Amino acid sequence: MTDIPDTAASGTGAGTDTVDGQPSLKAGAIGFFDALVIGLAATSPAYSLAAVIAPIALLAGVHAPGVLLASFVPMLLIASAFYYLNSVDQDCGTTFSWVTRAMGPWFGWMGGWAITMTGVLVIGSLAEVGVVFGLYTVGLDGVADSTVAVRTMSVLLILLMTMICVWGTDISARLQNALIVAQVLALLAFAVVALVRVANDTSSLDSITPSLSWVNPFGAGGAALTGGLLLGVFAYWGWESAVNLTEETTDSSSTPGKAGIVSTIVLLTTYVSVAIAVVAYAGTSYLSDNSGEEEYIFALLSTEVMGSWDWVVYFSVATAAIASTQTTIIPASRTGLSMARRHALPKTFGRVHPRFRTPDVSTWWVAGIAIAWYLVISAISENALFDSLTALSLLIAFYYSLTGIACAIYFRRQLTRSLASLLLIGIGPVVGSVLLAWLLVESIGDMADPANSYSGQTWLGVGPPLVIGVGIIVVGVVLMLVWRVTDARYWRERPSVAPEREVSA
User: Is residue 197 part of a domain?
Assistant: First the structure.
């Protein structure tokens, strides 16, 4: 029987220059603000909000801001689990490492696989949106209409962002600092102008006077709330990228976890305020009629709200997508590194560049697979690409739920120490996991109906998103079994319990 390695004791994330004789990640490369920015950038606020606001308005009407508020609850509860688990295990593999500690290697491996594949599914789409809206910003609409030009530039953008990731976490952080400031300022400018025009009754659409009742998620009804929550979870997803950089962050036992929690709060404020502005200016009928436009709803609204300054909104979505293209690579590459160090993947994925101190091999692998997926799935059809993004909710809900449950299991001996421990380490994360598990079941039911897919086609008798999501999980199980036969060292690890001294609520 083999216990799980103590990452802090072995030098992983402890500030040493080597791990088992190999170069380690660059300790102390970023601080709290950098980690916070990366967590925000990974969610791509402008892109995510643009992608979900119209579909949520179709379901919930004026209560769309309330649905985004409700979606925040499971995210905050899971963020609490990330904070406490990171406080005792500063491993860049996050969910993979923590679930392995608490629940064993089988669950841990699948958690790591889910994180890696979420990045693969979305990176290409993010790059494409960044390219298209970047072209809109500079007035090159004709080039944006060229499929060949857009896909070529999207691949080049992925390669550029990957190169920056390899060059260094501190370089990546400086780029993200600039991009997030530009993105948030542009979003706020859009929201302020929209609300001012509503107040002055100069909206070019059917504006509605904002009401406090809009933030009541239950006003939309049960079915609308369920569907809206599924979209809301996608909008908040990605904040944990800050925790994947735990080994490269100053004060790694607390800073990344705090950055993750604060990022969810900042996202809540941004999402609800901008959603109120959008619903007030455009009205629910306009948003419902254009709910199929996804992230391009801001392209439609920008000229309506900003006039000749519409490029500000284009710029916001472009910077959001470009920033997220880079930061989405981080969780997948760090998880691959962590899995390789524990012999859960081939050793080559655990290589750290001796000069840049980043996981260069796993980073390039993530980019390569993401490019291949993007080109193949988009060649099938643009709708197939959107269907693959819909499948993300399965993987997101899966590994977030695992993390919340792992937190309560790992700290189970400490839950009765105090009321705070019971609520923050036990009940809170479990409730978050149950909510996400419920959404997972609901999403499976929705995805099974081909009518709910973008393509409207039937794959194997069900909707394409369900086939893609379940297919990825099945492939993961097969690869896990193959590697279990090839190298069984990781599977000798056994679940453990957090010592009493390790954490306080």
Answer: yes
pTM confidence score: 0.87
Residue 332 lies in a domain: yes
State CA 116 to chain mean position distance.
Answer: 11
Give the separation between CA 422 and CA 91, rounded to whole angstroms: 24
Domain total of the chain: 1
Percent helix, strand and coil across the chain, each rounded to 5? 75, 0, 20
**Residue 316 belongs to a domain:** yes
Rounded Cα distance, 26 and 363, in Å: 15
pLDDT (tens digit per residue) in 308-335: 777 777 887 888 888 888 888 888 999 9
Q: What single letter denotes the amino acid at residue 502?
A: E
pLDDT in tens, 205-215: 888 888 888 88
Q: What is the dihedral of CA 87, 90, 91, 94, to 10 degrees?
A: 30
Give the per-residue SS3 of 246-267.
Answer: HHHECCCCCHHHHHHHHHHHHH
Angle at 165 between CA 164 and CA 169, to 5 degrees: 105
Hey, how many other C-beta atoms are within 10 angstroms of the C-beta on 374? 25
Residues whose CB falls within 8 Å of the CB of residue 423, separated by 6 or more in sequence, listed in order: 505
Q: Report the C-alpha gap between 232 and 237 in whole angstroms.
A: 9
Domain containing residue 151: 30-382
Q: List, for residues 3-13, the tens digit of each pLDDT value.
A: 444 444 333 44
